[in-house]
Amino acid sequence: MIEVGSGGGQEGKRIWFIGRQHPGETMAEWWMEGLLDRLLDTDDPVTRSLLSKARFYIIPNMNPDGSRRGHLRTNAAGVNLNRVWNDPDEKNSPEVYWARRNMERLGVDFHMDVHGDEALPYNFLAGFEGIPSINEKQLRLYHRYQATLARLSPDFQTEHGYPKDAPGTSDLKKCTDWVAERFGCPAMTLEMPFKDNANDPEPTFGWSPERSKHLARHCLDALHELIDDL
């Protein structure tokens, strides 16, 4: 886990980004590289503003063992990490177990879990509409973040994505649902395409590492517009 930012003292926001729970989704780690490139650029005025107001907790690769072994969905023990957040096992899913321990210790005001989707050729967000204790503020902030990112990034859209969960039907084994339920904050899953963005195809390189990095920069721009209201 990488920590960045002064945190703004006791009133500072606690911002979490994690990625590549599924090791085959390599675009997530390129996205993380773009995130860190920007957060470590102290000449960037958006970066300076964010770091003065928040402490960032970043896990660029949640599944290093699965990545090393070339797995698509699981860690070294054969566990799909994004299906154990409600009750992770320290032996078989230590990645989630210790990430959760740190979230409990430090708190969470905003959370994004970065993935790639094999089927849908778009960039989109999935939320937490089905959690039991959903509150109006966290849902409003999530919708505002989604709309802001769509306005700032031509590579992001809101028309295509996963169906929304009906009230009370969330799966708390999934990271986004568990975090939103536990901390009452806006939490979301970012999905990126494997091949290309159908809204703006690039015939030579498709959805490339560089485009993943640029999307991360726009995600920080969108966060900057609502961080004061978290």
TrEMBL record:
Residues 1-230 form the Peptidase M14 domain. SUPFAM superfamilies: Zn-dependent exopeptidases (SSF53187). One of its GO terms (molecular function) is zinc ion binding. The active site is at residue 191. One of its GO terms (biological process) is proteolysis. PROSITE patterns: PEPTIDASE_M14 (PS52035). Its cofactor is Zn(2+). It comes from the Bacteria. PANTHER family: CYTOSOLIC CARBOXYPEPTIDASE (PTHR12756), CYTOSOLIC CARBOXYPEPTIDASE 1 (PTHR12756:SF11). Belongs to the peptidase M14 family. This is Peptidase M14 domain-containing protein.
